[in-house]
Amino acid sequence: MTDEGCSDVTSALKSNPSHLRELDLSRNKLGDSGVKNLSDLLKKPKFKLEKLQLSNCSVTEEGYKALASALRSNPSHLIELDLTGNDPGQSGVKQLNDLLQDPDCQLKTLRFLSPAAEKACRYVNRVVGENPFLQRKLNLSGHKLGDTRVNQIAALLQDKHCQLNTLTLSWCDMTDEGCSDVTSALKSNPSHLRELDLSGNKLGDSGVKILSDLLMNPQFKLEKLQLVSLYCTAITV
């Protein structure tokens, strides 16, 4: 379905809005215009939808704004909203975050991250008191993450909502395995990061070689890299 089909569905529901409680439009090509049509429907008090699934529907910042505006004007019914797999950018994430702070908002379940990224986001919130998707800098220096926790951070980096400019993972007990996870994540979402600090970790030669492959990617526009380590040789560097 495209935005045209979504328009037909919402027009039909406007004429008979009171019975529908769950609507799943996931994995359709609705785009922002389709979601805006749906948002107009959500504003109507007679439309008492409780669960809405819009995962992987090509929704960007404009669609998120329309949804947030609709739910502010009619906040009493929707309790579950799934927006995973869309690309709202940082401003879209802020729209959702602000909506959840509204005391009239009844949403109990809001999904816009992959399960792995959601887990990483909760961890970062707990240890540094910041939502990483609303920040441009993330400093986890000195936190004994180890490769297991670094793997979770990599899931966060891989998520398209993440637009960090500066990432500090120095002295985090990371080995080559953790470095591999980080570089793999950055290969899939390479364009935003400008500063990366991996100093004081046990990266060794293979970790540095993996990172070097990433540096050859023209989409990876890193400007500052810190790799002070006792575990890699001068030849590799």
Question: What's the helical proportion of residues?
Answer: 40-55%
Number of strands: 8
Strand order across the largest sheet: 1-2-3-4
Query: Taking all residues together, what is the mean pLDDT?
Result: 86
CATH architecture of the largest domain: Alpha-Beta Horseshoe
Number of helices: 8
Shape: elongated
Intertermini distance: 52 Å
Looking at CATH, the homologous superfamily of the largest domain is Ribonuclease Inhibitor
What fraction strand?
A: 5-15%
Quick structural gist:
The chain is of the alpha/beta class and 237 residues long. The protein is built from eight helices and eight strands; from the N terminus they run αβαβαβαβαβαβαβαβ.
Question: What does this 3D model show about the protein?
Answer:
This protein has eight helices and eight strands; from the N terminus they run αβαβαβαβαβαβαβαβ. Helices cover 43% and strands 10% of the residues. The protein has two domains: 3-111, Ribonuclease Inhibitor (Leucine-rich repeat, LRR (right-handed beta-alpha superhelix), Alpha-Beta Horseshoe); 115-226, Leucine-rich repeat, LRR (right-handed beta-alpha superhelix) (Alpha-Beta Horseshoe). It starts with a helix and ends in an 11-residue tail after the last strand. It is of the alpha/beta class. The strands form two sheets. Strands 1-2-3-4 form a four-stranded parallel β-sheet, with no helix packed on it. A four-stranded parallel β-sheet has the order 5-6-7-8, with no helix packed on it.
